[in-house]
UniProtKB/TrEMBL annotation:
Signal sequence range: 1-25
Lineage: Bacteria, Pseudomonadati, Pseudomonadota, Alphaproteobacteria, Acetobacterales
Residue span(s) of domain Solute-binding protein family 3/N-terminal: 29-262
Coarse class of the protein's main subcellular location: periplasm
Protein name (Swiss-Prot/TrEMBL): Pyrimidine moiety biosynthesis of thiamine NMT1/THI5
SUPFAM superfamilies referenced in this protein's UniProt entry, alphabetically: Periplasmic binding protein-like II (SSF53850)
Gene Ontology, cellular component aspect: membrane; periplasmic space
Example GO BP: alkanesulfonate transmembrane transport
Domain of life per record: Bacteria
Organism of derivation: Acidocella aminolytica 101 = DSM 11237
Length: 336
């Protein structure tokens, strides 16, 4: 990313709604950051208190309104895990040398994210975005997505008038006609559709090796020092996935409550994800295992995302070894 943007992402933290649990003597303190990405199994883990149940530590949850906003906390070690994070802010961080790794790939976006346009804005194709105002969380997954979609349409990245704003701000801007389009994810993507927005394209149009994922990341030094706690964290995530598969109706009710949406919306949003379990992490379609990590879909997506972000000036340094930032060993340990 541009240094100007990266400074904003690393210093402009807007974390809110931290909930601190009572501390118990002798246990380490762990802070887990998260975004509201709508209905996904992470919300089941959180809603059922599985992090607190499975992790032998004092666990605190902390909400962030976007991935870039969490980077400062991760860089300062005041945050041990971050979930619901898109690939671009992660790529920006590791391109700067931050010791971070993906330890769990939660899900791949299909129809739960994309470009929503305002009817009457004269936008019927991606090519029609030229000169239009599009809302975007700059530096988030949307930067990679927009660049990819524009490239496929033969448009340069700067051909569109990008307006940097948070997802909640996009809803207001859409209703006041301050923007022509938005590239965003659920629940705001779903909310814009409910308000009459036309879906121009979704993340389902992106290939698996250059796709949009929500991932959980951690400081590699911390994981090396606390491997059992990291494995317990992954176990809690996996229990949320298992519960979602075994009790879909109950899981949807939990997700809806956690995400602040109704169950019908939650069901629609969940269909827009390809969900991954702890076992799935070891597949080449997710993180991979052993030497296969280098050729996994997640690692290839890091490579392709970095290439796009470098081309459009969002990062200044190419990734030397993307596979170093993908660690499936935690999931392997959690499965034992």
């Amino acid at each position: 990313m541009l240094k100007k943007f990266l400074r904003a992402g690393l210093l402009g933290v807007s974390a809110v709604a931290a909930t601190t649990l009572p501390a118990f003597a002798g246990k380490p303190n762990i802070v887990i950051g998260y975004e509201n990405n709508g209905a996904d199994p992470y919300m089941v883990t959180q809603g059922q208190g599985l992090f607190q149940k499975d992790i032998d530590a004092n666990v605190t949850m902390k909400f962030f309104d976007s991935g870039p906003a969490a980077m400062s906390a991760l860089a300062s070690n005041s945050l041990q895990f971050m979930c619901g994070l898109g690939i671009p802010p992660f790529v920006a961080a590791i391109s700067q040398g931050l010791p971070l790794a993906i330890i769990y790939n939660q899900e791949r976006y299909t129809s739960a994210a994309g470009i929503a346009v305002r009817p009457g804005a004269g936008i019927n194709s991606v090519a029609d975005l030229k000169g239009k105002k599009i809302a975007i969380v700059q530096g988030s997954q949307a930067s990679f997505e927009l660049a990819t979609f524009l490239q496929e349409a033969g448009l340069p990245f700067l051909a569109v008038r990008q307006v940097n704003m948070s997802p909640p701000e996009m809803r207001v801007a859409y209703t006041t006609k301050a923007i022509d389009a938005a590239i965003v994810w659920d629940p705001v993507f779903d909310a814009l559709r409910a308000e009459g927005a036309k879906v121009l394209t979704t993340d389902a149009d992106l290939p698996r090796y250059a796709s949009s994922y929500n991932v959980c990341i951690a400081n590699t030094h911390w994981v090396q020092a606390h491997p059992q706690l990291a494995a317990q964290f992954v176990k809690a995530l996996d229990e949320g996935v298992t519960y979602t598969k075994q009790h879909p109706d109950k899981a949807l009710a939990i997700m809806a409550k956690q995400a602040g949406i109704d169950e019908k919306t939650a069901a629609s949003e969940l269909k827009g994800y390809e969900i991954f379990s702890a076992k799935d992490q070891l597949s080449p379609n997710v993180l991979g295992s052993g030497a296969g990590v280098a050729d996994s879909a997640t690692t290839k997506t890091l490579t392709n995302t970095a290439a796009v972000l470098l081309k459009i000036g969002r990062i200044m340094t190419p990734l030397a070894n993307p596979a170093k930032a993908v660690d499936s060993r935690v999931a392997a340990e959690a499965l034992k």
